[in-house]
Specification:
Largest sheet: none
Oligomer: single chain
Number of helices: 6
Distance between the termini: 22 Å
Order of helices and strands: HHHHHH
Structural class: mainly alpha
Shape: elongated
Helix content: 55-70%
Number of strands: 0
Protein name: SHOCT domain-containing protein
Length: about 130
């Protein structure tokens, strides 16, 4: 797997994990990085707990500083295995919904699901600073 693909897919996974709704809001923020809003408070809380972060602003600032999710977890005493498990679970749920709606085939579902853990694992180790 080439690094460009890993970076693109990793960025997409992180964006999906955080809700991905930031792109639907007006760009009024002066910050060059779009803030996200979680689709579910429970999901956001789970991510913050796994990373041992006190707020989404703290997590946002760490990501803005170019840290990977693994860096953040290591620095704050978080559990990166829980982060990976949470993201894989959320993305599997999305794949299940896409399969059920008919937007992907069984072959596409199987191929994407087979790569999911590896891609998420690589993504949490990637910093974008």
């Amino acid at each position: 797997m080439n690094i460009k693909r890993v970076m693109i897919v990793g960025t997409m996974i992180v964006a999906i994990s955080f809700g991905g709704t930031a792109w639907g809001k007006p760009a009024v923020n002066a910050s060059p990085v779009a803030k996200w809003s979680a689709t579910s408070v429970a999901d956001k809380d789970d991510l913050l707990k796994a990373l041992n972060q006190s707020s989404d602003e703290e997590l946002y600032d760490a990501l803005y500083d170019g840290k990977s999710l693994m860096d953040i977890a290591e620095e704050s005493g978080g559990n990166i295995a829980n982060v990976i498990e949470l993201q894989v679970s959320q993305l599997t749920e999305q794949l299940d919904q896409r399969l059920a709606s008919g937007s992907i085939t069984h072959q596409q579902y199987a191929a994407q699901k087979a790569e999911l853990k590896e891609i998420v694992t690589q993504s949490v180790m990637t910093s974008f600073g």
